[in-house]
Amino acid sequence: REWKSIKEYKDIRFEFFEGVAKITINREQVRNAFRPQTVNEMLDAMDIAHENSDVRVVVLTGAGDKAFCSGGDQNVKGIGGYVGDDGVPRLNILEMHKKIRSIPKPVVAMVNGYAIGGGHVLHVVCDLSIASENAIFGQTGPKVGSFDAGFGSSYLARIVGQKKAREIWFLCKQYSAKEALEMGLVNTVVSLERLEDETIEWCQRMIELSPMALRMVKRGLNAELDGQRGLMEMAGDATLMFYLMEEAQEGKEAFLEKRKPNFDRFPKFP
Ligand code: 2NE
């Protein structure tokens, strides 16, 4: 499979193959932990993936065979957040969570090893998770002086249930890929050698389906948890669909032609 680089970055790789944009956190020396720059690069890549209509699915993964992502880089954790080159402490990974939720295309976590701490939350937030047999899952926040009470808690609980979510956070245990599958935390588990092939097959299947239908289903599934913001995203797409109808064109044309709009000729549905 020949991945083509979309844009060069320092902390991530961003590549394209047959409708799939792949973001790979490329910091193997720290088990693919993210620092502010890593997150800024991921956000930039997500913006490109969002705007580019050739991109139908986004895959998020980590470099190597040991880790998907080990969360925030503890080497740069200062007082008030993770400190970047500008000296400002940030928690900009939350912007990435919002971006994964709002991009109107499926985002698939290809979990190739440890998904720990903020790295675990990243896969949780993705639409689908495909894991290799060596993948290990868990939260560490309460052990290392952190927590994610946002999607990392509420959406996790929607996936595995309240009791299990509390266990995951309150005990900070690690779970095998098999256990993750049993609790519905991942969609499937395959060997590490098959991981990318399996992920691409799932992507290709989605690419054959209606993009607008998948987009609206993602909006609907999000809206349940995302409140007014989720409804706003869904309403925005309803507006997009209305703009595609002649009925909406008539309104605009009547205004520009300085006449009364005539909506009578459009079908009325029960
Ligand atoms: C990931 C894990 C379980 C891997 O264990 P193992 O035994 O395979 O590797 P090892 O030796 O622990 O790590 C290899 C190298 O990577 C560094 C280590 O310090 C080590 O460096 P050297 O000794 O070779 O120099 N490394 C690993 N994870 C790192 C990290 N997150 N930051 C900086 N360096 C890291 C094991 O490494 C582990 O438990 N890692 C820490 C996981 C963790 O606690 N992450 C932070 C959670 S908090 C968070 O991410 C967060 C949040 O809770 C809320 C919002 C945003 C972020």
From TrEMBL:
Pathway assigned to this chain's UniProt record: Quinol/quinone metabolism; 1,4-dihydroxy-2-naphthoate biosynthesis; 1,4-dihydroxy-2-naphthoate from chorismate: step 6/7; Quinol/quinone metabolism; menaquinone biosynthesis
PROSITE patterns found in the cross-reference section: ENOYL_COA_HYDRATASE
Annotated EC: 4.1.3.36
InterPro entries: ClpP/crotonase-like_dom_sf, DHNA-CoA_synthase_MenB, Enoyl-CoA_hyd/isom_CS, Enoyl-CoA_hydra/iso, Enoyl-CoA_hydra_C
Gene3D superfamilies in alphabetical order: 2-enoyl-CoA Hydratase, Chain A, domain 1, Lyase 2-enoyl-coa Hydratase, Chain A, domain 2
GO cellular component: cytosol
Catalysis: reaction(s): 2-succinylbenzoyl-CoA + H(+) = 1,4-dihydroxy-2-naphthoyl-CoA + H2O
Residues binding hydrogencarbonate: Q139, T140, G141
Cofactor(s) the protein needs: hydrogencarbonate
NCBIfam families associated with the record: menB (TIGR01929), PRK07396.1 (NF005637)
Protein's recorded name: 1,4-dihydroxy-2-naphthoyl-CoA synthase
